[in-house]
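Record type: ASSEMBLY
Status: queued
Input:
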Amino acid sequence: MTPMDLQDRAEYLSLALFAQKVVNALMDYADENKTAKLKPSLEEALDSLDSLLNAKRPSGTSRRRVAAFSSYEHLRTVEEVWTANQRVKAIRMMRLVLRAPRNPKTKAVANELIGLFSELQNQALWNFEQPKPVSPRIMQRLCQMV
Amino acid sequence: MPDGLRDLLHDAAVLHSFVDFIGEYCKEQERSQTYIDASGLFFKYVEELTAGIKLELRNEVDRAARFPNRLPVLRRNMLTLKYYLRLLHTLIKPAADAHTLTIPGPLIDLAGKQLRGVKGMSSSKIVILLTPEFMYFQRPHTHVKEQARLVETFVPQATFPPKLGFIELPYSQGPSFFTNLAVYHEIGHFVYEELSSLNPPYPDFVALRSATTGSLSRIFRDRQVLALAVKIVQNWTQEIFCDLFAIRLLGPAFSFALVEILSMLGFLSSKLSVKFNPTHPASACRFAEHVNMLTADSWMEAIKDIKSEQKKLLEAFAMIPRSRYNFYLDDTTRGPQALVNAFLDSVIPAIRKLVHELTPESNFAVRRFGRVRHDIEECLKVGVVPIMQHSNSPDPVSLINSAFCFYLTSLPEVITNFEGPGADRDVDIYSKWTRRLEMWTMKAIEDSQIQDRYRRLKRTVSWSFQKKKS
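Status: finished
Output:
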């Protein structure tokens, strides 16, 4: 048996830590010009976000596992905090930072990304603190199959 | 000092006191109690983590002073770390309570040894936790591991021990034996989590996932609805996997133990036993799978003479037709039956295949049980720990199954022999003798483990002696 509520809450915390990892790498870059963690962190986030936008199926279907945005809790948090346009914009900005880290204008983009991922971290922490039941809309659509 | 910085310093100081206490608490427990190895590894991780966080806190304060525009981000980071510690906090005290005087040591040792014999689990270890809930749990460790991996990028001083699982026992059941056989189911959760998150995954796990998502994506089109349906079916999948996994390692004793536990919890009423809920499949479905596997592995044939209530119940549940199964999302809301059908038709066959792939064949265990059962029961009948004879020494699985069969069928006879006619109707006496039977069984398992170690050592010594001679 598994204690479900803890498991669900833990998913939110994983997402918050994931966002923190990205934010820290971006801060190191924007404030101190350190790029050691930038590439692995952004690539991981890009990979996860890409699979969220392009995949037709939820978690567990592909052979390749992504670091975030695959579980119900992650999907829900992302949809609460980022619009579809913001998701596309986040991908575009991450690609830009990865492509031209030495360009001084890229730091402004990095700061914008810090803002986006901080919002995501905030919402994930909120959901961890105040876990909500499955949204009624989703539950209703599941029940329509009866 | 600017206000924001003062607030951050305050947060840092609170977190510092928190981690300081946790680190010292783990050290103190290790000094004053004896633990199984895995608990020691976990405590060491916590000690390293707390020391690392204290160092990192200084860096964060320094960063905040240099870049005041980052204050909100840095405070949020501390909060995230605090939440991670909150999650660890729920593990530390139950792990500290589970020292060797409060848990069934020989059973845990045996389970650990069998676990390491499972394909892909050779170096795994189990931390035992004592829970105030009256329920056995496996703490999902994938999240802890994933979180620890992420935390390691901020606190590089602490690495979470690989292949560490967390199993919770109800504190009231700590020293007992028969009900604690349920830990095998929980170990199944650990194995499932560990092996299903491998990258690249095992082919049989891929097949299982494909069976799940393939069958469900034909029914559910909306992404979030499909994600929820997959999650529910994955919960059912794990429960059936864990039951079958436990049966393969332990035999029918596990089924009997589960009947006892579910009956104690009131889950075996005719209405509840056919009900699937979002976290668990119906008990009837679970027991149908038990009987299916026990029959296929010849265990049912080996215990055909057992006429106990538990066995009858097991068989009766297995006979319930699947058309009577139903699925409720909560107490009143009916869920889609199509989910249950997809699970039964497409997913369960893939689970059976996976369990067969991962666990050793049962034929030897069944044959050994048939050979030694009579001798074990003869010892128990006269109130002694089953004795190890070199020629026919009983293995732990035979000991457990023989003792459980004896408990279900012959305990009243022993009580009458020792306590006089009618004593088997006295609940105090019955309970006392149950406890004795459990202690004899546990001692016999411990003896077999010691003998096993002795034999291994003897082989090593004689080998090195021969090497020296040559």
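Annotation: The first helix of chain A runs from residue 4 to 32.
Annotation: Chain A touches chain B through 51 residues (CB under 8 Å).
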